[in-house]
UniProtKB/TrEMBL annotation:
Its EC number is 2.7.3.9. General (non sugar-specific) component of the phosphoenolpyruvate-dependent sugar phosphotransferase system (sugar PTS). This major carbohydrate active-transport system catalyzes the phosphorylation of incoming sugar substrates concomitantly with their translocation across the cell membrane. Enzyme I transfers the phosphoryl group from phosphoenolpyruvate (PEP) to the phosphoryl carrier protein (HPr). This is Phosphoenolpyruvate-protein phosphotransferase. It is found in: Cytoplasm. Residues 5-124 form the Phosphotransferase system enzyme I N-terminal domain. It catalyses: L-histidyl-[protein] + phosphoenolpyruvate = N(pros)-phospho-L-histidyl-[protein] + pyruvate. It comes from Paenarthrobacter histidinolovorans.
Length: 566
């Protein structure tokens, strides 16, 4: 029996057969010529047959898909038969280039041309590169890149998943995710939590598990075992039964003694908001507004933005909706706003800082938010990401006031904002802790890197101390209303961990925002502890010498987690 230990990022216990994500298709050697005895005519015929096979496979998958995944597959299938692409490759073949190298070079040329055209055509540039890789794979007789197609459910094992890999990820077929790379705050981890899939990341060696092997995955413990034991099969069966009891949240986040901790949802648009409302979310703690801007070459108009924002507000009439203003930069570059040549984008012009180099975009966004808020019944709060100083917080508050927005706030992601929370919060009405980036910056550890996964966890005592300092700063800088502290929420992925949610509550965090699928688990566990017990667990975590011990010590005091497989 082989066992692998990684980092658990999404709870669940399950058994199933492994399907390995095919390795990326390697570039054919530069200058590769037709093999001896292969005529250009035969090579062109072979290329067209491979392109047709790729088209047919993608079209078949599109016929069974829906929504965005269906659109992506259909567009990619059409590109597989693109006349310009195949003619360009044919010319190279006639000049003696191998079919594999010809389609690779033709794909690069067509992709560059489409990208330069901008707009919709630029969006197709990525499809061309995907298609050329698939055609090369077909010519070589190796698996195509991307998530494997299967009629039976399986556990997906990969080095890591790029955001684009998830376009066709069907949670009815993919039972769990296991990666050898990535970290607890990586895209794979966030995707798994949003889909409710058990997941383990940074499990070194899992890419060596043979296709078809049966494995047991424990997404809470970060454990993967080949050839499950009878005990592990029983645990998986029990999880399937238990998860049904966690299928609903009653819309009332509270501790056992009645201390209110509203549980909010993280959303990216109207579809997410409607789904979150249906799952009982008490509002929105993080509306990622950059989804209105991504995959565009130009800034969306105020009218476009206002319509998108109002659609989210309308899902939560009378409830709090917290928007994060545009968080472009780092892993979310925008051609009209960010500089792709920055040597260190994570420490560069991103979030609020883009207003330094491209003034006007933020003010137009605030205008759109104010307009949408005036036409809805939601209680709209607005916060800026990547605030580092009190001066920045004050300027953002002024911009909000000029736009007619009454409740400005800040994201606490930069350690300086946590360390000076009292002065920062003197300028605004609330703070929300983005624990993903706060952890990354506090530990100087890129959240996407598997080798740094042990550092990049919000269980780090140093990160918990920054949370505590932010709460203490909010208490020191009261709102003026009967001396009450200013609200401090958490909207990072830390809030989706039921054990960590208890610790955050004990530290004095006032609201928790998470992927909507985590609401029931967090709500269930919170109801098993009093506020005093949560405070004691927070002190325990803060006193731990390491993140591992902080997590283990707290979990040992919460037997309900083991009972529920969380």
């Amino acid at each position: 029996m082989q066992n692998f230990q990684g980092v658990g990022v999404s709870p669940g216990r399950i058994t199933g057969s492994v399907r390995q994500m095919p390795k990326p298709v390697g570039e054919p050697p530069s200058g590769e010529k037709l093999a001896e005895g292969i005529s250009p005519e035969d090579a062109v015929v072979r290329l067209k047959a491979a392109a047709q096979a790729v088209h047919d496979e993608l079209k078949a998958r599109a016929d069974t898909a829906s929504g965005d995944g269906k659109a992506v597959l259909e567009a990619t299938a059409l590109m597989a038969k693109d006349t310009m692409l195949l003619k360009s490759a044919g010319k190279l073949i006639n000049a003696g280039t191998s079919a594999e190298r010809a389609i690779w070079e033709a794909g690069a040329s067509v992709s560059e041309m489409l990208h330069n055209l901008g707009g919709y055509m630029a969006e197709r540039a990525t499809d061309v590169l995907d298609v050329r890789a698939r055609i090369v794979a077909e010519l070589r007789g190796v698996p195509a890149p991307g998530i494997p197609s299967s009629e039976t459910p399986f556990i997906l094992v990969a080095e890591d998943l790029a955001p684009a890999d998830t376009a066709t990820l069907n949670p009815a077929v993919v039972l769990a995710l296991v990666t050898s790379g990535g970290g607890p705050q990586s895209h794979t981890a966030i995707i798994a939590r949003s889909l409710g899939l058990p997941a383990v990341v940074a499990a070194h060696g899992v890419d060596g598990i043979a296709d078809g092997s049966e494995v047991y995955v424990d997404g809470a413990a970060g454990f993967v075992s080949v050839e499950p034991t009878d005990e592990q099969r029983a645990l998986a069966t029990a999880w399937a039964e238990t998860s049904a009891t966690l299928a609903a949240f009653d819309g009332n986040g509270t501790t056992a003694d009645g201390h209110l901790v509203p549980l909010l949802a993280n959303v990216g648009g109207a579809k997410d908001a409607v789904a979150a409302a249906g799952l009982g979310a008490q509002g929105v703690g993080l509306f990622r507004t950059e989804f209105c801007f991504l995959e565009r070459d130009t800034e969306p108009s105020v009218d476009e933005q206002a319509a998108a924002y109002k659609a989210v507000f309308d899902a939560f009439p009378g409830k709090k909706v917290v928007l994060r203003t545009l968080d472009a930069g780092a892993d979310k570059p925008l051609p009209f706003l960010t500089d792709a040549t920055e040597p260190n984008p994570a420490l560069g012009v991103r979030g609020y800082r883009t207003d330094f180099t491209t003034p006007g975009v933020l003010e137009r966004q605030l205008e759109a938010i104010a307009r949408a808020a005036s036409e809805s019944e939601a209680d709209v709060w607005v916060m800026a990401p990547m605030i580092s100083t009190a001066a920045e917080a004050g300027r953002f508050a002024s911009l909000c006031a000029a736009a007619g927005i009454q409740t400005p706030g800040v994201m606490v992601e930069v350690p300086s904002a946590a360390l000076t929370a009292a002065t920062v919060l003197r300028e605004v009405g609330f703070a929300s802790l983005g624990t993903n980036d706060l952890t990354q910056y506090a530990m100087a550890a890129d959240r996407q890197l598997g080798p740094l996964a042990d550092l990049n966890t919000p269980w780090q005592p140093a990160v918990l101390r920054l949370v505590q300092l932010t709460v203490e700063g909010a208490a020191q800088e009261g709102s003026g209303r009967e001396g009450a502290a200013k609200p401090v929420g958490v909207c990072g992925e830390a809030a989706a961990d039921p054990a960590l949610a208890v610790v955050l509550t004990g530290l004095g965090v006032t609201t928790l925002s998470m992927t909507a699928r985590s609401l029931a688990a967090v709500g269930t566990v919170l109801k098993t502890v009093t506020l005093e017990q949560a405070q004691e667990l927070a002190r325990l975590a803060l006193s731990a010498p390491s993140a591992t011990e902080a997590r283990d010590w707290v979990r040992a005091k919460l037997p309900v987690l083991e009972e529920l497989g969380l």
